[in-house]
Design goal:
single chain, alpha+beta, globular
C-alpha cells in the first residue's frame, strides 16, 4: 500500500505503506486506507512526531547498535512540515480520498 497525503495548503506527500503505518501509529492512530488530520489536532500530531524523532536520535545504549541508514527525521520531516503549513492555513490533511 502507498499513502498519498493531501492538503489544499501543500503539495501531495507520498509514503510507502510501512512508513505511513509507522507514522500513523506514532500519532496514536491505527493505520487505515482513509483518514483525516484536522487542523485542531495538528499541534499535538507535530509534537508526537518530533518526540519520536528526538527519541530515535538519542545515542544508543548498546555500543554495537547502529542507526538505520534513513532515520525518522528524514522520513517524518516532510510530514511535520506539511502539518505546520496546513495548520497555518487552517486546512486538513487527508489520505485515501
Amino acid at each position: 500500500m502507498i499513502y498519498k497525503f493531501k492538503s489544499p495548503a501543500t503539495g501531495d506527500l507520498i509514503m510507502l505503506g510501512v512508513h505511513g503505518d509507522q507514522m500513523l501509529r506514532l500519532l496514536g492512530r491505527e493505520p487505515a486506507p482513509r483518514g483525516i488530520i484536522e487542523p485542531a489536532d495538528m499541534p499535538a500530531a507535530s509534537a508526537a512526531l518530533m518526540a519520536a524523532i528526538t527519541q530515535d536520535e538519542a545515542p544508543p545504549e548498546d555500543d554495537d547498535a547502529r542507526q538505520p541508514p534513513v532515520g525518522l527525521r528524514q522520513r517524518l520531516w516532510p510530514v511535520v512540515e506539511m502539518l505546520r503549513r496546513a495548520h497555518a492555513a487552517d486546512a486538513p490533511v487527508v489520505w485515501g480520498v
